[in-house]
Amino acid sequence: MSNAGFIASRRRFLIGGALAAGGLLAPGLRNAVWAAGSDAPEKTQLRVGFIPLTDCAPLVMAALKGFDKKHGVSLQLSKEASWAAVRDKLTSGELDAAHALYGMIYGLHLGIAGPQRAMANLMTLNNNGQAITLSNQLKAQGVTDGVALQKRVAASEPGRYSFAHTFPTGTHAMWLYYWLASVGIDPFRQLRLLVVPPPQMVMNMKIGNMSGFCVGEPWNQRAISDNVGYTVVTSQQVWPDHPEKILATRARWVSENPHSARALTAAVLEAARWIDASDANRRETALAIAGRAYLNTKAETITGRMLGQYEDGLGRRWQDAHGLRFFHDGAVSYPWLSDGIWFLTQFQRWGLLKQQPDYLAVARAINRTDIYRQAASAAGNITVPQSEMRSSTLIDGRVWDGRDPAAWATGFAIKR
To answer: Mind naming one GO cellular-component term on file for this protein (predicted)?
Structure first.
């Protein structure tokens, strides 16, 4: 091909990538754009942020096991102190991609979680594996479930009890609000709400700054191990196999680096599949991420819940049927549109959005099913669902399937 021909071809490729990033091409045409050009990653050294939580594991193992090199990229992992730091570095371009809260990325795209940026979700990193912890002070007062908590809150002045989550539009805020409302507590009218970085949760509860929090592991188990609090409900009890963290980046980064985006996603997909392949792999993962460079905690604090072995700090132990999942035959990893739409309904429910969005259009713009399909093909032997929607039954018995989101958003008794 002549130099002029190459330049013209490259220009067509970049224009096609930009259109795909905006959701303006049908999935088949998006894939055709990719197939038309070279598949070499445009950028090979990728700076990827993470928060020290168990569910950063696919990123860590992608780097440690060499899945990144297999796909022609090198992950330079950057440990961050808070989700706000992840947000700021991701939007400024200091990070190429990040382990991120599902709802945080949707909030950024809409301009309600910081300066508006067009964002992209390349894949879901995990399902389940979060929890709501209550303080031992509440346990001493006989509060061991949601019913008892509701009675105590109802008998107290508004704001008497403080509850923390990790980011205003994040997953932990949504699980906390949903569960509280399901037991009859209005989080905005009856409680004092705090935003606290995950590694600071246990210490803040220990010194009496909060009565409860919602966060990822290992901090719920750590509260039990340190005799500070107990698990009142897991996130998978709120929504079995719920979406949690995602592999996030900016839409512009994808349009400028579509092959790097595919390579990064394929590498993390392979790591997720490897982790879920056996308990031995999960144990190895727990040992690896426990290190100082990652979670900096004891491996045994991570391993139990990584294997689905739960205790609640109240004397109950069980093997969780919906424990932390990273792959599950690809069902975890696929960026279901219905998952993204659910977060939009909760933003509407809790007054974070002032008007109903175009639910499906927003989800299609953010959740890059086109990149995911390419990555699944590159990783090999990964089944891609035929539908972009899935159905789930939540703790209050309501069935979510992505249809009629406006009615879902406005159909709750407790809302703002």
So the answer is: endomembrane system
